# Entry
Amino acid sequence: MMMTELEKLKAGLPYDFTSPELDDIKRRALNKCQTLNAVDVLEVSKRQDAIRDLFGSAGDNPNVFPVFNCDNGKNIHVGKQFLMNYNGTILDVEKVEIGDYVMIGPNTLISTVNHPLSPKGRRQNLGIAKPIKIGNDVWIGGNVTILAGVTIGNNVVVAAGAVVNKDVPDNSLVGGVPARIIKTLENDID
# Structure
């Protein structure tokens, strides 16, 4: 039996990102992003309702500033006191799990999607998706890129402009392109 493109994606296989099935999901997400972005930032309750309508789940007091964009929305799960600053993008073709007390700086990209290195695969519109997980008490600076398949631990600071392409352990400050550990951080809440 033939797998749908969504089934291929869920199985971790290359999928056609232009399939009608996935286009429908993107259009729904774009519509809900437009709704969220149109709500005045001072209308906190209405913005939180729009976030909860767009995301798969959200803890207490989620805050997402405009302009926000995503591919699905329902694959985004955030904990309590989540903050995403201006011009954030989450390409959530796969699951994005974000813990409690996470602050994300402006112009940040979190991308669960990648593409083949071969021109043939790219001409076939193939995507390859891997989930991203971000722990609790994480501060992600502005202009950061987090790539597919990355897990970021608890009590992590990602310096502005970093490109995170591999896992980051708990209690770390990382920065650079590609991001590397700069120092170990104290965890003063345990």
